[in-house]
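Case study 2.
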Amino acid sequence: MMKQNVKALLIALAIPLAVGGLATLLSGGMGDYRMLEQPPLSPPGWVFPIVWTVLYLLMGYSSYRVYASGKPQAQISRALRLYGAQLLFNFIWPIVFFAFNWYLGAFIVLLVLWVLILLTLRAFTAIDETAGDLLIPYILWVTFAGYLNLGVYFLN
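Prediction:
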């Protein structure tokens, strides 16, 4: 049973929110996105910040569960390093896509991100099954984002 550590939980929730917020700030946001030719099933722009906020909170809580799991430190450290790596690629993607308008490059970043999420999900599941389950919506959304990204690349 995990012992609740409110400070660690708040930090774990704040980290992905801060990464996402800073990436949005540095990427210039989605202003030009609406002007691009969109693939079928593209949601309206207002959906993205809502979905990403929920996903960042799920990621943060998931990482907290791993951190507070009480499992061997080496296993926790490896899982959290993977988590940090996927956060880095999560940070890079909107900058490549929105700030540089390099859609193919962004898709490649997204592919690396997807693999890192999968590795993180597996490492988290080995430590705490719920922590891994909390990342399932994230990998599903990034899969959908890959479809949207590739669609934008081909259509523009």
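The mean pLDDT is 95.
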